[in-house]
Amino acid sequence: MTMAKISEDFIQHMSQQLRNSEQLESLLSACRRPLRKSVRANRLKTTSQELKQLLENKGYQLQPIPWCEEGFWLDSAPTNDLGNWVPHLQGQFYIQEASSMLPALALLHELQINERVSMLDMAAAPGSKTTQLAAALSNQGLIVANELSSSRLKGLHYNVQRCGVSNTCLSHLDGRLFGDTTPEFFDAILLDAPCGGEGTVRKDEQALADWNIDSVRSMAALQKELIVSAYKALKPGGRLVYSTCTLSREENQEVCQYLLQQFPDSITVHPLDNLFEGAEAATTAEGYLHVYPHIYDSEGFFVACFDKSQSAAAQPHRPASPKRFNFQPMTNKQLQAFTAYCKIFGWDISDIQNRLWVKENKSKSLEVWLLPERCEALAQHIKLNRYGMKLADIIKQGFKLHHQAAQCFGQEFNQQIIELSAEQAQDYLKGKDIHLEGSSKPEHKEFLISYQRLPLGLVKHLGNRLKNWLPRDLVRDNSVA
To answer: 31 an active-site residue?
Structure first.
């Protein structure tokens, strides 16, 4: 990486904000250093210790991230192809900047959680915080992952699927609409707002090259609309976290002050000075975290946490227009048949059977879906891009599992499993069939395939080869074992 280009206007702006020449010099020096790579273990697939061992065996040197027990900085990088490494494609970890792990932790800080909790990630792509929340909730409750950009929605879905997330619905809405369409619906909301991105200069050398204050003020106007919408969509007694990856007070403290001024009697700051050991180094007088890049040698980030009063007055809103909900609960007959089918894999579905639904697709055949808690109620308010996850197709012979079922629940299977070698795993991810020695034909031809005892996907056993059932949009020609 070449030295970042930093606008003189930005330097002058920061000099007024920091009011300390030593801090300013430390900030600018940090902005010109390359950013350390960091990862987060996905607790739905592995443990922090297992990931640590896996990375160390690969030749990485790890340093724990103090605010996230699942997070590590990689101080030595033998390969930059982590994204195509098979354990990453299996969903064992997420490549996530260290400071961006803070908002989800703040949202969960001292929050009372139950299996019916509902959360909104208002600007979710590419999915780092959604998957972090889902893992912390152990796939319980409901998370709505919203993304306005249609081009980024596909990547969000991929990461949710890769990480084995089953409690999440995807929506494709302007975040400013949630206050009116889902008033007082969510127990907790994370607004990682679109921003000027000043804190990302360590990985994007052009982030500050053309900085100007007018763009900052324009972005702040949007952020104020979004944070008010989030407040209105939050239940009384709920939790709201506002975060950005930018540094200017106009997009951070001033947006938060605007929220407090709009609702002075019903919203209070939840201080974050004790979120982790050392948090006081970045804590502002208001109780927010303003993480400049030089404080923890990270990206710049801002995090504010608010609690909504139990006695908060209801806000006026437009009545919801009824939305079409194309799912039907499974009949007892369908449930019995699907339960028997899943037993072929040694998979006990009793924990999820009350959340199983069927849906008719465009070709008039039926599909089995797993929907999160309160999904039906949510669907009365907004149009969802994806409702939960598809588990199987209902076919003439019975059922056929879907790739998402393997990704999310494959670790619960104890039958019909074939362990692949490193070379076979790479071939599978490249979309190739797996050739076998011998010609035995099993009674049931569907198999889960795994690598290092973690699911990769599904195949059809044809005797001398395993027919690849990996969805074509997931094929990776450059996978690395």
So the answer is: no
Collect the ranges in the chain with pLDDT lower than 50. none
- Backbone dihedral angles phi then psi of residue 129, each to the nearest 5 degrees: -80, -35
pLDDT for residue 397: 86
Nearest to 368 by CA among 343, 413, 398, 411: 398
Return d(Cα 103, Cα 303) in angstroms, integer. Answer: 6
Catalytic residue among 68, 245, 305, 375: 245
Residue 198: DSSP 8-state: G
Burial (CB count <10 Å: 0-12, 13-18, 19+), residue 32: middle
Counting the structural domains of the chain, the total is: 3
- Give the Cα separation of 133 and 411 in Å (integer): 20
228 and 153, same domain (yes or no): yes
Query: DSSP 3-state helix, strand, coil percentages of the chain (rounded to 5)?
Result: 35, 25, 40
Whether 447 and 461 have beta carbons less than 8 Å apart is answered as yes
Write down the pLDDT at residue 364: 87
Question: What local confidence, expressed as pLDDT, does residue 75 receive?
Answer: 82
Residues β-bridged to residue 401: 392
Q: Give the domain range for residue 345.
A: 327-372+379-398
Residues 106 and 244: their CA atoms lie apart, in Å, by 13
Are 219 and 365 part of one and the same domain? no
Can you tell me the distance from the alpha carbon of 470 to that of 472, in angstroms, rounded to the nearest whole number? 6
How far apart (Å, rounded) are the C-alpha atoms in residues 329 and 355? 8
**Structure letter (DSSP) for residue 377:** H
167's CB contacts (< 8 A; 6+ apart) are 134, 137, 139, 140, 141, 142, 143, 372, 373, 388
**In this structure, are residues 392 and 364 in contact, taking their beta carbons and an 8 Å threshold?**
no
Residue 102: predicted pLDDT: 98
* Strands 417-419 and 446-451, sheet pairing: parallel
- Residue 440 sits in a domain whose CATH number is 2.30.130.60
463 part of a folded domain = yes
Distance between CA atoms of residues 387 and 288, nearest Å: 34
CA separation for the pair 98, 273 (Å, rounded): 18
Is residue 24 in a domain? no
pLDDT given at position 257: 98
Residue positions counted in the chain: 481
pTM: 0.95
Say if residue 207 is in the same domain as residue 342.
no
pLDDT, residue 129, reads 98
- Tokens representing 172 are 């494709």
Mapped onto helix, strand or coil, the DSSP state of residue 447 is strand
Question: Residue 124, CB half-sphere, CA atoms under 13 Å: how many?
Answer: 32
| Bond into 372 cis (ω within 30) | no
On whether both 299 and 365 belong to a single domain, the answer is: no
